[in-house]
Amino acid sequence: LSHQMEMNPSSRYSYDPVLRWDPEVEDYFNKAYGPDHFARISKALTRPSSYSCIRVNTVKATSDAVIEKLTKILNDDSEDGLKLVQQPDGSSSPISKCQIPGLEYVVLVNGSGPHRIEYGSELENPPKEVLVSRKCAEAVLRGAQVYVPGVLACTAHVEKGDAVAVCVAMEQPGDDGDWSVNMTRGTTLQGLPSDPFYCERSGLYIGMGTAMLSRAGMFRVSHGVAVDLNNRVFRLPSFHNVLEGEIFLQNLPSIVAAHALDPQRGERVLDMCAAPGGKTTAIAILMNDEGEIVAADRSHNKVLDVQRLSAEMGLTCITTCKLDALKSVCLPSTLSDSTTSVNGDSSVSLTSHSEVPSNEGIASDASGRSEAEKSCEENASTEQPNNGGDNVSQSEIRKNKGRLKNGRGRTQSQGGRAGKSKGFPPNSFDRVLLDAPCSALGLRPRLFAGLETVISLRNHGRYQRKMFDQAVQLVRVGGVLVYSTCTINPSENETVVRYALDKYKFLSLATQHPRIGGPGLVGRCEFPDGYVEEWLKPGEEEMVQKFDPSSELDTIGFFIAKFSVGPKD
Ligand SMILES: C[S@@+](CC[C@H](N)C(=O)[O-])C[C@H]1O[C@@H](n2cnc3c(N)ncnc32)[C@H](O)[C@@H]1O
């Protein structure tokens, strides 16, 4: 295949990635979905959704006002990011209100692609190239620019202003079975078959652009745009710095998860794995900022991200704390007198910055968590769509901004510190959201999935079941518990629901509004090693929402289960 692509420039200089899976994982997903369906899911994962989804902060703005402002920006020649999505004939606007009942405050901005790009590729005269990391390419496919840190290699003699083709360096299998990108940053490409990654980057070209720096500059400076990618395979808007505080870029299923919780004004809600706060703020807006939402996360720095986002959106009903979801429940006897009350809850104490390890990585290692737990957490933190820049999350951008200007709200009032919680008494919340850290195998676009094994996938499920055991104790009788993930892996979705329903007889699946996702998987799976996994029972599949990346809705892969909590006795 590589040889053919080498000989045929039009297939070499194209975008047609094949997602690599661990063979046992591929077998498992083939069994779960059927080979054809899984092939479609796999293909869909390599592409971004065809639209961006914006949740309007209705506490500050209306969707009509936001549409008007975005349209103005779209027609402003200086706003390159949004101009990208303008229809070629300029006839119909790419901006519209979501038509799903109850989600009219969500604004959709259509992108386009895949486009055929003319790379000017003659065999004797190949285009100059810039090779970027996979993470950089995934961000670029979502609308980001090509930033300097993402560049790995470049053709010799590239000067500022040159036309360059941008392609992706993918992980390759090594002799030891591990995957890696074996390339020294700064490598010179010749455009010849003898180049590193020459065959491997066939079919992995994401656009044509203008070099903003010379080759030497790309590897000398530490930040800035390396290539202005003005001719892209996928054209999606970048909302970097656009209408801050009034809008939040969020995947549609995440917005639906907040609706599934059905929070009511004045209630007390716990968001157990809250950072960076996308669903927390969605819940707060549904509650019209009335009541109390406790937003917890085990990472101190990520808790600060939630604080910043809440402040930016002007939401005051959100209380944040650093808390390990595996230790969320405390018995009243464990509450010491010395704890400081935050929003009237004596189980939460403010922690001085010095008490919190400054290096989360070191803290994590010291906590003795398994590799699966750690990778689960790292993956999950990328759920937020990132159109803002290469390898720089929106929360990172916000953090930097926070350093420059002091926003109002809790960030300031708590001096940028996250209160450390000792947990909460049983039955102390009306509703709990467990948006669990997961393998993130639903996120799009994804160009590589080879690192997960069937064992790591099962371990994610084990970690989530432990969190569920805590969550279920914290919801009062008559309350609601919502469990969600951004993965297509049944071990983290249907299997967790089966576990929950079998173990806690007082739980029942509840109807979700809106319900726009598809059904869950019914049945069981027997693995070659004898391990058996149980999924849903007939009748339960229509009660959950499973967002299929290959379906017409064109969303990320996502799963939502809603439970009503009956008498616990
Ligand atoms: C899927 S993300 C949450 C996304 C968030 N709900 C949102 O919508 O913006 C999962 C989060 O779980 C956190 N996390 C992982 N393990 C945790 C634990 N043991 N306790 C609390 N939080 C944890 C991670 O730091 C990460 O921020």
Automatic annotation (TrEMBL):
InterPro entries noted in UniProt: MeTrfase_RsmB-F_NOP2_cat, MeTrfase_RsmB-F_NOP2_dom, PUA, PUA-like_sf, PUA_sf, RCMT, RsmB/NOL1/NOP2-like_CS, SAM-dependent_MTases_sf
Superkingdom to which the source organism belongs: Eukaryota
Record-annotated active site: 486
Ranges of Polar residues composition bias in the record: 336-357, 378-395
Chain positions covered by the region annotation Disordered: 336-426
Chain intervals with Basic and acidic residues compositional bias: 368-377
UniProt-listed CDD domains: PUA_NSun6-like (cd21150)
Binding site for S-adenosyl-L-methionine: 273-279, 297, 324, 435
SAM-dependent MTase RsmB/NOP-type domain residues: 180-566
Keywords (A to Z) from UniProt: Methyltransferase, RNA-binding, S-adenosyl-L-methionine, Signal, Transferase
Family to which the UniProt record says this protein belongs: Belongs to the class I-like SAM-binding methyltransferase superfamily. RsmB/NOP family.
Protein name stated in the entry: SAM-dependent MTase RsmB/NOP-type domain-containing protein
Lineage of source species: Eukaryota, Viridiplantae, Streptophyta, Embryophyta, Tracheophyta
